[in-house]
User: Fold these one by one.
Assistant:
Number 1:
Amino acid sequence: MRNDDSDQRDQQGQRGQQEQDDAMGLDLLDEQAEQQVRRVWHERRWFFSVIDVIGLLTGSQRPRKYWSDLKANLAAEGSEVSAKIGQLKMESADGKQRLTDAADTETLLRIIQSIPSPKAEPFKQWLARVGYERLEEMENPELAADRMRREYQRLGYDDEWIDKRLQGIIIRDELTGEWRVRGASDDDFGALTNTIHRGTFDHSVASHKKVKHIGARANLRDNMTTLELLLTQVGEATATELHQARDSQGLPALEADAREAGEVGGNVRRDIEARTGRPVVSSENATSLTARGQQPQLFSEGASTDAE
């Protein structure tokens, strides 16, 4: 006959297993949300793609239709949620920036209440975590770099690659800061970036992704070799130097500098190729670059500092 101690141990074991299962479920949800839900920092808070959230929570093959029906139901119930939905540009499947329904955390939580899903609760925890992390990182930018380093390490990148990737983000942020104060809008960043990129690699961002066999929404820089990252830095750092040296103002002047910066990067690339006898642009991607052999994306393109 089983005694009370045996029953108690069984109950403790069951609770422990449940807690472990819940933790694994939350980890999986975290990974899915980071990869599938686009978000953009706007007016000092996160806005998330409503379509992406619905697709994640429901598994629906037609998340747009689901959202359309849900909006109609909410409106019929007298809910003000629809009025709080805005449209912000995020990268679509074809790689272009397009307007999509977006909601901040408060509004998104109200929407989630109307979606029956076992993923709802862990998703709420994910929302709370990314919001808290962003506030901390605004107060101490080093925390953002530390978080990214840990995540890249978790994905299996080596330390040399991580150092170059993080340095590239710093150079990129400086460049986009120059663009903003010199008359370019965020909508211009993609074209300016492509000008530098094409000059450096003799490929547009889109064609470079095709060489690497990655999707249009994948982050190209997370799939670059160390040498490709370094050449990207050469082009973008040169653009920053040209803007500052010439005090370039307005989009035409910035575009001219971007073309010259691409020429500088391209000259370096061709010199390397002539000396090594092999192309710099590589089909190698994150699957081969990481120990875990997976396609990473630390944040969706809408939030990316790379703005490819």
Number 2:
Amino acid sequence: METVDIIIPYADLGLPLPDYPAHLVPVCLPAAEEIGEKKRPAVIICPGGGYDYCSEREAIPVAMRFAGCGVQAFVLYYTCRSPFPGALLELAAAVAHVRGHAAEYEVDPERIAVIGFSAGAHLAGSLADYWNRKPVSGLFADTSVCRPNAQILCYPVISAGEHAHRGSIANLIGSADAEQYDNPRADAVSLEKQVNADTPPCFLWHTSDDNCVPVQNSLLYMQALAAQAIPFEAHIYPHGAHGLSLCDETTAMGDWHINPTCAPWFDACTAWIRRGYR
């Protein structure tokens, strides 16, 4: 598969150089004379993995499912175990790349959504909340190039507070600030505190008995969206393990990842995309 290296000026931004570059993998329907030119919606996928690794279960299989539904997909393998805001700036650069090459990819530049799973959803939500202010504005003179038109958050890590997935937050800001979370660095990565009037519409789903990332993360984010009158669609399913991905045999490690009750999230999500994120 084609890969595109995503390079940001790490040293200039005071960030450590990663061991390997972040890279973007397009999974797109090719141009076809019979179908004609299209401007398709797009998603940029941020796999989960606690900011420790990028889960393959939440990457190419998800992209292929979206592409099969006419949504051009791109998987971002972002830098892990790197301090905030490294991965955030990589995602911003990835959105800018897709928008800048929209004609080549047959993408509508005004229908580019970011989607993430677990810690990857924290990354997607971070760009949704920070796209037009620091630290992103320190990388782009015109931040409209990296603006996501929508965000899709799947069993997301949201908060650095009481209900945090502490491992994910520690990989972002260090163990000390993650454990003693009443501090500015923890506040900066608590997305329920970062929602603002420019945050784009959101599709969100979670299970109420998730025993890894508590559902309170989604509930806090929903409250913050509602307080800012940001449109959102949310699905809270009664039962399901963390990390369900597509909820079927495609991405299952075992029977616990096969969940017909939660599987409709994908069709609901693509319908929301087609409605224009409404």
